[in-house]
Every structure is written in structure tokens, then in C-alpha cells.
Amino acid sequence: MMERELIGRNLSLQDDNGEDIHTVKEVEVKLTTETLDIVRARRMTKTKQLTGYEIPVKIVMSKLESRLRYRLLEDFKAGKTMFLARITGGLEDRITGNTEKVLITGVHIHGEMDILIAKIDDNNGIDITLEGTATDFDFVEKFPDYMWE
Questions:
Q1: Which of 5-19, 21-35, 101-115, 116-130 has the least mean pLDDT?
Q2: Nearest C-alpha neighbor of 139 from the set 84, 86, 90
Q3: Phi-psi domain of 79 (left: phi exceeds 0; alpha: psi -120 through 50; beta: other)
Q4: What's the predicted TM-score (pTM) here?
Q5: Which of residues 52 and 146 earns the better pLDDT score?
Q6: Which of 25, 123, 132, 133 lies at a C-alpha separation of 20 to 30 Å from 33?
Q7: How far apart are the first and last CA of the chain?
Q8: Are 57 and 134 in contact (CB under 8 A)?
Q9: What is d(CA 53, CA 32) in angstroms, rounded to the nearest whole number?
């Protein structure tokens, strides 16, 4: 199997209507399962039964996307759930140009959020990191099967 060089493309936060509102530098999505221990009566072997799952999401954006920080902080102070409607984007194979597109919906921000990082002697870009949980994740477009042969 040939080694692939994959790069994130067109990563953005969108409103309910699918309009881009913020550019995203990096997205990390995991699937975390919840299980219950089960013991099989005949053999007394132990196994696990899937009882649920959650989809933790980490989003990294440029400090230039300050409008989102302002909105999320206002929501938090008003006692509202910090919520992002949609995140879209994908991966592109730099060799073949093939793409995989994803849609992440219903992201509730409940982890730590960088709201201010200031350094008097350093003006390098500072990234904003948000963490939360999505309600759904879908592959809207998949890589072709021949890529994995």
C-alpha cells in the first residue's frame, strides 16, 4: 500500500443555513464508547456490551477569529449553552487529489476555551482552542476504494 500525504481542506464553522462564518485551522474528532461488562453464563467469559458513545471535538482557530470568542463568552455569561451548529471540511490526498468530506453537527462547547493570550515581547500568531462534544458526525464524501489497495 502506498503512503498517502493527507491535508485538511476547507475547514470552517457554519451557521444553521450552511453559510461559512469562521475558518478553522485544525479539527480533531474522536469516537468514545461507553460499555458495560457482561459475563457469558456458559463459559464464564467476560466481554463488553456497547451502551452508548460520545463524539469529543477539538477545534483550533486563528486569534483573528475573535468574533467567535466574543459570542461564546457572551453566551456563557448569559447562562446559555455554548453551541456551534456545523463544522465542515475534509481531507485531500496531495498526490491524487482525491477528497473525503465530513460534516460535524451540534457541537456543544464545554471544555476549556482560550479567551486571551497576550505577550509583550512576542507577536507570533496565537491559536484559539475550543473543546466540546458533537451530536453527530458523517462522512459526506468518501475516498475511493482503490486508494487503500
A1: 116-130
A2: 90
A3: left
A4: 0.78
A5: 52
A6: 25
A7: 6
A8: yes
A9: 5
- For residue 108, give the C-alpha cell: 456543544
| Single-letter residue type at 146 | Y
Q: Which three cell numbers stand for residue 118?
A: 497576550
Cα gap 68→82, rounded to integer Å: 10
Q: Which three three-digit cell numbers place residue 84?
A: 456551534
**pLDDT per residue over 37-92, tens digit each?**
888 777 788 888 899 999 999 998 877 676 787 888 888 889 888 889 999 998 88
- Residue 54: all three cell numbers together: 460520545
Amino acid sitting at position 20: D
Nearest CA to 75 out of 136, 132, 137, 31 is that of: 132
> Which has the higher per-residue pLDDT, 103 or 22?
103
- How far apart (Å, rounded) are the C-alpha atoms in residues 109 and 72? 9
**Beta strand spans in the chain (E):** 6-14, 20-23, 26-29, 32-39, 46-62, 82-93, 99-113, 127-134, 136-141
